[in-house]
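Could you help me review a protein record that somebody else here produced? This is what I was given.
***
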Amino acid sequence: FAFLFLHSLVGGIYGNLHSNTYLEKYWNLGKTIQKYIPRNQSEKSNYTLSTFRGNGSGHVVTRNHRKTLRNQNHIEIDISKLNEVVSINHAEKTITVESGCSMETLIDVALENGLLPKILPELKDITVGGAIAGGGVETSSYKYGLFNEICKSIYILCGDGSIRHCRRDSTEFRDLFGALPGSYGTLGIILCAEIECNDAKPMVNLNVKTFKSIDNGLQFMSEQCHDKICDFIEAIQYPSGTMAVISGFLDDSNHVNVSTSSSYRPDNRAEQWFFEYIESKCQENTSHRFSLPIKTYLFRYDRGAFWMALPLRFQRSVRFILRNALLMPLFAMTHNNFISRTLFRRFFTTRLLYSLLRKAHPDIVAQRMLIMDVFVPWSKTKDLVELVRRNITAYTTPIWLCPAVLSQPRIPQPFSPICQPPSSHHHPQLYMDVGIYGRVNDYQARRYTRQIDRWTLKNNARKLLYSQHTYSEEEFWKSPSVESQTPLDRGLYEHIRSKYGALQAGFVDLYSKVVGKTVKVDTIGQRWRSFWSYV
């Protein structure tokens, strides 16, 4: 194993990264994994392995499920040092970055060099590795697909201790390359990736159109996606039934276009949050135009985590208010006003909000919050939105709608949230990411999650696996006893894990990592700590 690891390391990495610093980091990670590899390749490790970033970050749900995996035979590998920009290729317009590099770091480096990644997920602390293995989506995904599809090549540290260089234009390791989206770090450790970019432009001109019915809004979005005129497109469906479709156009000018002049900046502490500003304009006019700097636009939802940081903004439950009576002064001050936005701005960054949410017990989160992205065929979008509005009356926050396609349909991606079968022809099918984020005011979120899970099983839809789930193993994996079009192929998954050493090394399997076991809050102390972390 040491020989194979060294051979692949020197042959596959050295010519591209040109730095002993990176070699040493990857070598140390490889040695860590080798400690737990059985000498007999046919045997399975007595340990289970998973990764974490030592700074305490990580996704809310997978980090909480990690608590159920911890035991004397569970090993966590710290990958927090994989956070650097490796190289920039101006000729090919690519940037090679390590998997722990955040989207904020990536866009800062890219803009300094006149480049703009084709897709950039909208929250600053999302990492490159997380966006690849989890299925990162953004408003340019209707053109370019998910984040993994703008990666020309990816270096992966496999369970056998070797490093594979997976390239999009090569048949070598193609099965591993295609299996990464949706694998959530269970097939190996993503070391670094080469990301495709376009030429950067400083401004984005935004055109907001208001629709009273979801049918008309979806029809307009479909036409925009078909024509591919705009650079970005998304929609916000409000509880009132109003739907705002927001189209973005990159602009070369270094100043605000006079015809779209607006002083609004969502990153200014005194301004309304982005979704509130759009809602206020929807009430005034059927259309509105304004401009934002490119970085401000890309992270427009980072303040307030979309709309999850305004617990009383959409609450209509007296019971909810009474049960949180002690926090009423704070909640009242966080309502939409100049003073609260100015004073409490630092409390509503996504970085802080998610760090607090990670400390809450998973059972508390499962009872009180719906946080999920559901990828559905375009024709099923209206059905899911109406299901949420009709059956989940306790959910009174907006719904995010973001179109996406598989831009590389020739490469099989069996675990991708877009479950389009591979095709020999370039005919990508348009899907919609339906983002459901927010609290429910009757504490029945787990029951509502189950309703949505059942709906996905019957409607050719898939959830991003970072969220809460109620799937049984039979429902999660393809099974003859379950009537479903979307479960994942367990045989194929285990074959890839075995082929590249993840199974033998003991990497946690996908179901255990993203679904796991439900853990009850047992003691008063646990409930108290979880409650305050949660609120």
Remarks:
- Residues 42 and 290 are 61 Å apart (CA to CA).
- The radius of gyration is 23 Å.
- The first strand starts at residue 48 and ends at 52.
- The chain is about 35% helix and 20% strand.
